[in-house]
Design brief:
1 helix, eight-stranded antiparallel sheet, 13 strands, globular, 6% helix, mainly beta
Length: 195
């Protein structure tokens, strides 16, 4: 029997247009308590306290009345430009994922210097649906122009709460994803709901 709500991830590594390695979707086990707080606050319009990326507790009152055009701090935004502050993120940490995680173990920063990866945009596809399930995909491409090889060991998703900071909502320890200098790594998260 399938779970009613599933999050899965996969990756591929390319050298230019040549596919080096690809894995099929793997089940994630790593929604954090910030995920639950964001969902609860958005759905209930009630006050929640979440731990931001720096470890600081932040209290929000989600404001459903602001959807008409006012200031809205109930955002669940993960789309991002070339930044490592939010969106789909990667790291080199190997500490097991935990429900209380609020930051990556050892995040890889956006850039081209030693130990850095260039972060492409994080995109969210429109949902696709069949008679029994609906799915959407979150994607980001990371390019290694650092001059050395980088082993990605963890992936995560950080959302931007408008007016309130950055919050880790998903974190998975992947095992070694070796990204050689000049290669790109594409990470996908697929969120599926099934009837």
């Amino acid at each position: 029997m399938k779970d009613n709500l599933e999050l899965k991830w996969n990756y591929e590594i390319k050298q230019g247009n040549k596919l080096i390695k690809r894995i099929r979707l793997k089940k994630c086990k790593s929604f954090t308590s910030n995920w639950a707080q964001t969902l609860f606050g958005t759905m209930s319009g009630r006050q929640v306290t979440m731990t931001d990326f720096s470890g600081t507790p932040v209290t929000f009152t989600f404001n459903a009345s602001s959807y008409g055009g006012g200031a809205d701090n109930s955002s669940f935004r993960v789309t991002a430009g070339a930044t490592s502050s939010y969106g789909l993120v990667v790291g080199t940490g190997i500490t097991a994922a935990a429900i209380a995680d609020y930051a990556m173990d050892t995040q890889i920063i956006h850039g081209t210097g030693a130990g850095q990866l260039s972060h492409g945009t994080t995109t969210v596809s429109s949902p696709s649906a069949t008679a029994t399930e609906a799915t959407f995909r979150i994607t980001r491409i990371f390019t290694n122009s650092s001059g050395g090889d980088i082993n990605v060991e963890e992936i995560g998703l950080v959302n931007l709460q408008v007016g309130g900071g950055y919050f880790l909502i998903i974190r998975d320890v992947t095992g070694t994803l070796a990204v050689l200098n000049g290669q790109s790594l594409t990470i996908n998260y697929d969120l599926t709901t099934t009837i």
